[in-house]
Design a protein that fits this description.
The chain is α/β, with parallel strands linked by helices. It contains 13 helices and 15 strands. The chain has 2 domains: about 170 residues, Aspartate Aminotransferase, domain 1 (Alpha-Beta Complex); about 260 residues, Type I PLP-dependent aspartate aminotransferase-like (Major domain) (Aspartate Aminotransferase, domain 2, 3-Layer(aba) Sandwich). The radius of gyration is 22 Å and the shape is globular. The two termini are about 35 Å apart.
Length: about 450
Amino acid sequence: MITHTEGESNTSEARAEWAARHPDAVTRELLERDAGAFLHQSLSSPCLSTIAKAEGIWIEDTSGRRYMDFHGNSVHHIGYGHPRVVAAIKAQLDALSFSPRRFTNEVSVELAETLGALAPGDLGKVLFTTGGSDANEVALRIARAATGRFKTISFWDAFHGAGFGASSVGGEATFRSHIAGPLLPGAEHVAPFNCYRCAYGHAGPDTCGLACAKMVEYVLEREGDVAAVIAEPMRAVPVVPPPGFWKVVREACNRHGALLIMDEIPTGLGKTGAMFAFEHDGVIPDIVTLGKALGGGILPIAAVVARRDLDICGDFAIGHYTHEKNPVTARAALETLAVIRDEGLVDRAAKLGAYALDRLREAVGDHPLVGDIRGRGLMFGVEIVEDRKSRAPGRATAERIYYRCLEAGLSFKISAGCVLTLSPPLTIPKDDLDRALGIVTTAIRSETA
């Protein structure tokens, strides 16, 4: 189902207008059943519409309306229902459908070996989980075991999952504010890289001197006993780190004995134009977590990939998962990686992403309500502001633009209340990308300052 936009009021005027234009009985009935059956939570309810079919870059609702999906919860790197992945899953179901954890199987071992070979440096030891939140919990457990410390440094506004540990190191208010009582102790937070200079690409020694990165070392030094820094290599808002940011953080971690954990759950597997987003910045973390798209947009699977010398937890449990070596989810992941490799999707994401950013900058870069256009690969966004001088978030304007695009057949996410966040599949045909960019451009141009 298409969910309402991040930061949007459930009763916003734009949403009410959208609902009024689509009153068909089939859609209305299913939405009412959904509201009656599911626990309600921010960003997931109420739903906007329904889904009856998902194929390639397209989702289709129960009334036959079709939308290009530029959100997909970051699972659809290779599109929905890729025929190779579907065929591989069907064949695996016939061959071996499940494997108890204390037994191994060929396909799970092959997937672990493949991920270890893909990851740079000495990242070669793997554990599979069902979802990204669990993968980050495992990474934190390894860091505690390896360092004998329990504190972490992470960033406000970051998302690392919905579990208690993941919510503790995460920095999104919606995943923290409702929890009565304390979260995990020792979870220190600093401001993310998103100051004015960073956002506009002016960071460096002649401006702010990477003060945002140096704040990480400031806390590392004063706490003195931090187990790990955990972060998204590129914020999925999206915000690209300033040049040199991660090298400063990597060196600070080395000096203070802290591990560096990179959460690549939305950004990994080619989305940014590199297999791992941290490769853009010339660093190698101690642990990387993967998920979302790893299951080919069909099945849930996530992975922790750690340095080989961090394989130190053999005497206790760090994550006993029933589906830890599930051959069906492993087969989906293996085939997904093969599709990414065989179809050259990493390079394709880099080229199409550069093209999309150039076209958007040319078309609306000087619009008075556009504060910034930014991203990497096929994860890019347009920040909507009230005016360029104040850079106040243009939330109501962003909502109107969103619903205008949805009406024209394009679905995406609004991040941080005002950033049109566009994340199409790596398989998107160029003419469909052009069509989507045209929809966004028209919707923005329809707004006046």
